[in-house]
Structure formats: structure tokens, C-alpha cells
Amino acid sequence: MSDDAIRRLLLAGVAPSNRLPPLTVKLLHARLLLHRAQRVFDEMPHPSTISWTALITAYMDAGDLREAASM
Known about the structure:
Layout: H1 3-11, H2 22-43, H3 49-61, H4 65-70
Helix pairs in contact: 2-3
Protein name: Pentatricopeptide repeat-containing protein
């Protein structure tokens, strides 16, 4: 699911619920958490190699290879 699709869902007031297909809920949740994780990482004064690797791995697990490669 693209970031644009997630934004549209959120702007429409859609929240993860049992009315959405489970995969959509899972992807939405994963993307939201990744954005939060990226924000925390970006605010770290001295991110560790472990933090960096964890974030890259999270992007790869979510299928966002472009973002993982840009790290």
C-alpha cells in the first residue's frame, strides 16, 4: 500500500478496524509505525549502528526497498 493511499484512508477518517481487510490493516499499521520509527531515528543526536540496522530491516520487511536503500 502506498503512502498516498494511506494518507487518503486517514484523511477519510478510516482507522484500522475489523471492517477493513486484515492485510490492509496490517499494512496501514506497519507504515504508520515505520514513519514514527523514522522520525525517532532522525531526531537521535548520535544514532547507533543497531538503530540504523533495525530501521533498514523494518523497511525491507515492509517491502519498501527504495526507502531501505536510501538509508
